[in-house]
Specification:
This protein is an all-alpha fold and 227 residues long. The chain has one domain (4-226): Rhopdopsin 7-helix transmembrane proteins (Up-down Bundle), CATH 1.20.1070. It is 81% helix and 0% strand. The chain contains ten helices and no strands. The protein has helices at 4-27, 35-57, 61-86, 94-121, 125-154, 161-172, 174-177, 189-196, 198-218, 220-226. Helix 1 runs antiparallel to helix 2 (35-57), helix 2 (35-57) runs antiparallel to helix 3 and helix 3 (61-86) runs parallel beside helix 5 (125-154). The longest helix has 30 residues, at 125-154.
């Protein structure tokens, strides 16, 4: 095992996503329109951290590509479902449905172009990092906006959890930029970055459940289903 701490903390993230999926299924009704998007978020997270653990166990070109493509899919899916929740694109109005179709095709095309460029044109580390950072910043900005808006409307403490998670992730992201020689030949900045993402992941699933329960209590989702 080449990077044991990175493997360990990748598995920690995997467990956080798996537990989050279990929490979603146990706390949110299957008929709730946003549940399938939250479940897909968990599936992408699970896949991302499985391939991360494999890559950090043994660094081959194939395992590296799996890690990068899974991570890119996870980050891009995060940007995909963010406006669906923030702007409620899941609601069955003609305009929202049209925009959702366009948004879905756009995100699929962006991912296909991303993989094609890296696989067939050039394996570019700088581009890959920049693409993931830009996509992450876009969704983080939307969640910060949503968090402020949601808290202003509800004054519930859980409404600020997305903002806390975003700030947390942005802080630990500095570990990717401020590298240092591995301690004991194993614990490096990258592994600590993986450790730092476990807490926000747990907080995020707790927010999903609280936010869904609030919407369910307002019964708006039942009107959407009947529509």
């Amino acid at each position: 095992m080449q990077e044991p701490f990175s493997v360990l903390f990748s598995l920690g993230n995997l467990v956080a996503h798996y537990n989050g999926l279990t929490k979603i299924r146990g706390s949110i009704p299957a008929a709730y329109p946003l549940r399938r998007y939250y479940e897909m978020f968990a599936y992408f997270g699970i896949a991302t951290w499985i391939f991360s653990a494999i890559f950090h166990t043994r660094d081959f070109r194939f395992t590296e590509q799996l890690d990068y493509f899974a991570a890119g899919a996870g980050v891009l899916y995060g940007m995909y479902y963010t406006p669906i929740r923030v702007f409620r694109l899941d609601r069955p109005t003609p305009r929202r449905r049209s925009f959702l179709r366009i948004w879905t095709v756009t995100c699929c095309a962006l991912y296909a172009a991303h993989v094609t460029y890296l696989k067939l044109w050039r394996w570019n580390y700088t581009y890959n990092m920049a693409a993931n950072v830009i996509v992450g910043l876009i969704q983080n900005s939307l969640w910060s906006y949503f968090s402020l808006k949601r808290w202003s409307a509800t004054h519930r403490s859980w409404a600020i959890w997305p903002g806390i998670a975003v700030a947390w992730i942005m802080t630990v992201m500095g570990l990717e930029l401020l590298d240092f020689p591995p301690l004991w030949g194993a614990l490096d900045a990258h592994s600590l970055w993986h450790l730092g993402t476990i807490g926000p992941t747990i907080l995020w699933y707790n927010f999903m459940v609280k936010d869904s329960q609030e919407n369910i209590a307002n019964a708006d989702w039942i009107k959407d289903i009947k529509a």
